[in-house]
Amino acid sequence: MLSKKTVKYLNKHCRRLDGKTVLITGANGGIGFKTAETLVYLGASVVLACRNPEKAASAREKLVADYPEADIRVMPLDVADFASIDAFAGDLPDVDAFINNAGVFHRPGEKTADGLELVMGTNYVGTFRVGEKVLPKLENCGHDVVYINTISLIHKFARVDFGRFYDEKGSYARSKLCLARYSEYLANKYRGTNIHVFMSHPGIAITGIASHLFGKFYILAKIMPFNSVERSSLAAAYILSGNAPCGSVVGPHILFCGWGNPKVNRKSKRALRDIKPLVEFTAGETARIAAEKEK
Questions:
Q1: Which of 240, 286, 232, 263 is nearest to 16 (CA)?
Q2: pTM for this one?
Q3: For residue range 150-159, what is the model confidence (pLDDT) as tens digits?
Q4: Is pLDDT above 80 for 222?
Q5: Considering 41, 124, 147, 172, which one is annotated as catalytic?
Q6: Is 172 a catalytic residue?
Q7: Count of domains forming the chain
């Protein structure tokens, strides 16, 4: 169940979402699961789009146990597999919001189903493929749709080198920088349409990914004033309540945007440059992979 503090925040700052359907990728645990719970609390119907069907079913059971009247469905989606993405897009339900939350951290030596370095192939290339497949359908659905990509503060320290695009070193930060630039591209592309694109970030939340980022200092991080997973999950509810203008990046706003409740953040300069060459490169990569699979 949500904490009293979270419930108080939602009741005060967020609108009810009754009659709305929200799809969340990677929603079987962590911030994705808590995002689903906050939106269920606000009355939304939620679709959990997850790679692992057993974990997704378990997540659904937990939510139904606490919210018996909730409408919660599960869909299969592996963002590290183009075939899974394409099948998912073919079965896409009518939704009012689509939240790209699925992602992985450092996994040395591991590859996607299509042979890409796992972190870049999942967090960015796979999410790019999801966007290119589902957004044309959402644009023609006849109603407004909020589309949210989940980035990370660490993107501010990354650089993109197409010659070393799939290097394992620095792949998490680089994948999030690429996703931030792609999100900015989408926000401009769909401006004036029924698609409203946002970026969200969790600040510094004590998750499994944070344990990798902090390494030996993880224990120290737990006693610092960083966000709980639950508090970091509030960005989507904030956005869906109409609290941010289209194209915004939303996340915690205190202590260098690492802590606190969600607010509109200033976009980083790195996220706003070299967008066109990145999108062209990625479109070429996804076309190449699709062509190879057809051989």
A1: 240
A2: 0.93
A3: 999 999 999 9
A4: no
A5: 172
A6: yes
A7: 1
